[in-house]
Design goal:
- The complex is a heterodimer of chains A (about 300) and B (about 270).
- With about 300 residues, chain A is an alpha/beta fold.
- Chain A has two domains: about 220 residues, Rossmann fold (3-Layer(aba) Sandwich), CATH 3.40.50; about 60 residues, 2-Layer Sandwich (Alpha-Beta Plaits), CATH 3.30.70.
- Chain A is built from eleven helices and 13 strands.
- The longest helix of chain A has 16 residues.
- With about 270 residues, chain B is mainly alpha-helical.
- Chain B has one domain.
- In chain B, strand 1 and strand 2 form a beta hairpin.
- Classes of the chains: A alpha/beta (about 300), B mainly alpha (about 270).
- Chains A and B meet through strand 5 and helix 3 of A and helix 1 and helix 6 of B.
């Protein structure tokens, strides 16, 4: 008998009027997997996750969660599933603890004894007695994670959990998600940040205007990625171009701001830069612009382009 | 995970309601507001003779309680119930919390019934408090002399107390009818302001329609008409036909409103929040 998929969404389609928000996408997540759904804003990630949670009905296709469907099993589909869509929302006139107590009630009340534990995990113990109206954005995100953990999920669905957070908040949220993913949970993570998905996920689906632009492992994605690019600022751009002629694997172009852009395999670019220094050319700046995966992400999600090997 | 019934969702709704300042304010107002109203009416030099029981309101506590009832039924009772019923669904849209509660182990249907029961229960409690406060303050301030009924008959104080209490109790069916209408407007509009204000406006329009001539066939079907069904209790002999008819009309309005609200909620895509 084959292992039951945590998420088995096949041929899922959803339109709002004339807009096809999700177009025949298939996403399959194995138990224990950390899966990323990546795409720019408006790609259809959130609509797909809302359908997974039963907040939106698909026009076509089937969604099975641990083998259960909304049509047959109703709300029982969400047994063992938790998470949040976009920014988590709570009742502002209640405290963080009261919100969690209420949500525990809606789960049957048998998780209420875990309140202290989940508040500790998200580092909100000290502020649990404050009204949510006084919470910062990051605190609400963490309360959202706490509300999810309260369900003791086997599948955790997080929709852009670091969205809107300051750099420290992003760091803390990523560390928390990594910790949760490392505990054996199945995690379905939506994001529009390639580095976030690359850091955490095993497999990824990249969406573009409602359809799948890529589906596969992060490793496969890496093999498709272009060479890294660097912005180069020198004291003599003409001579820098001449030096590049001695390094055939390195391309030096000029971007719209008249800055030099160097692309090529990492070691070859390093050799080129060393050559510039040896040639007495002053190096004013050398900055990595996009990681290879970021470049690939933009290529995949740009409606005009196509990438060989993509889904 | 435990199976969850309507009871758990109901407890959650009641907890939220208890934490809302607006709901608490309505309950306090239901108790306190009749007291100054009774004092003000009692302090008038001339009775409002053109109003039902107005002629006796300055000298009879029962008549004063019925005068307040006639006033309250025009728009106060629809407003008091709409403050919760018109908000109970729409506030989830306002706070963006549908996605929070619908991703737990409670279905849309269970949440719908929990909210409906909460709103109806609140309406009943508000009516109870308003009734008790009005009657007690009227009797204490004005007195409990025998009441002159609508047919000119004299009603002993003990009987008058029962009839006045029963008259206030007959407000429950139309109040629940307006509660259901407010629930529908709350689900449909997703806007608390519309959910609260629209039932009051509809009540006033119905009152106006009901006062027009030439619509005798339509008048009994208006949701505002059962607010006047208590008149038969104070006539001699009593007649209860309007009460029965009014209860059926309220039940029909309530059933249609709830069915509409249920279908809208079940079918809608939760895209906001």
């Amino acid at each position: 008998m084959t292992e039951q998929l945590a998420v088995d969404a096949v041929g899922v389609t959803k339109s709002f009027g004339s807009l096809r928000a999700v177009d025949d996408i298939t996403v399959q997540v194995a138990p224990g997997e950390v899966y990323g759904v990546l795409g720019p804003n408006g790609a259809g990630k959130t609509t797909f996750l809302r359908m997974l949670f039963g907040l939106i009905r698909p026009d076509a296709g089937t969604i099975r969660v641990f083998g259960r469907t909304w049509e047959k099993d109703g709300i029982n589909v969400l047994d063992g599933v938790a998470g949040f869509i976009e920014s988590p929302k709570f009742y502002p006139y209640l405290t963080g603890r009261q919100n969690l107590e209420g949500l525990a009630l809606l789960d049957g009340g048998d998780r209420a004894d875990r309140l202290a534990e989940v508040l500790e995990v998200v580092d909100l113990t000290d502020r649990a007695g404050d009204k949510v109206s006084g919470y910062s954005y990051g605190m609400r995100q963490r309360l959202g994670v706490a509300a999810s953990l309260l369900r003791d999920p086997r599948l955790l669905v997080l929709d852009e959990p670091a969205n809107g957070l300051d750099p420290a908040g992003i760091r803390d949220m990523r560390a928390l998600v990594k910790r949760l993913a490392g505990s054996g949970l199945t995690v379905l993570l939506s994001s529009h940040h390639m580095d976030e998905v690359e850091e955490i996920c095993d497999n990824v689906t990249i969406m573009r205007t409602g359809s799948v632009a890529f589906h596969g492992t992060i490793e496969k994605l890496r093999t498709m990625a272009p060479d890294p690019g660097y912005a180069l600022s020198t004291g003599d751009d003409v001579r820098a171009r001449e030096v590049a002629g001695r390094h055939p694997s390195v391309a030096v172009t000029t971007d719209p701001d008249a800055e030099l852009v160097v692309t090529g395999p990492r070691d070859d670019v390093a050799a080129y830069v060393a050559d510039l220094v040896r040639s007495g050319i002053r190096l004013d700046g050398f900055i990595a612009t996009r990681t290879p995966l970021e470049s690939l992400f933009f290529m995949l999600t740009d409606a005009e382009s196509s990438v060989e090997g993509a889904a | 995970m435990s199976r969850v019934g309507v009871g758990a969702a109901l407890r959650w709704e009641v907890r939220k309601l208890r934490a809302q300042l607006r709901a608490r304010a309505v309950l306090v107002a239901a108790v306190l507001a009749p007291i100054p109203v009774v004092f003000i009416l009692h302090g008038q030099s001339r009775p409002p003779k053109d109003t039902l029981f107005g002629r006796f309101a300055l000298e009879n506590g029962f008549a004063l309680a019925l005068l307040v009832l006639g006033f309250a039924s025009q728009w106060v009772l629809p407003l008091l119930t709409a403050i919760v019923a018109g908000d109970v669904f729409a506030s989830e849209d306002q706070h963006g919390t549908w996605k929070t509660v619908l991703t737990r182990s409670t279905s849309r249907g269970q949440l719908f019934w929990a909210k409906t029961i909460t709103a109806c229960g609140f309406a009943a409690i508000v009516l109870l408090l308003l009734t008790a406060s009005t009657i007690v303050s009227s009797l204490l301030v004005v007195g409990h002399q025998p009441l002159t009924g609508l047919s000119g008959q004299t009603i002993p104080a003990a009987t008058a107390l029962k009839l006045v209490t029963a008259s206030w109790a007959t407000m429950l069916p139309p109040m629940l009818g307006f509660t259901c209408l407010a629930l529908l407007l709350s689900v449909w509009s997703r806007n608390p302001a519309i959910g609260i204000a629209a039932p009051v406006v509809i009540a006033m329009v119905m009152q106006l329609l009901g006062s027009l001539g030439g619509i005798d066939a339509v008048r009994p079907l208006l949701l505002s008409t059962p607010f006047e069904a208590w008149h038969g209790l104070l006539a001699a002999p009593h007649f209860t036909g309007p009460l029965t008819q009014g209860a059926l009309v309220c039940a029909a309005w309530g059933a249609v409103s709830l069915l509409g609200a249920y279908l809208v909620l079940r079918r809608r895509d939760i895209t906001g929040g």
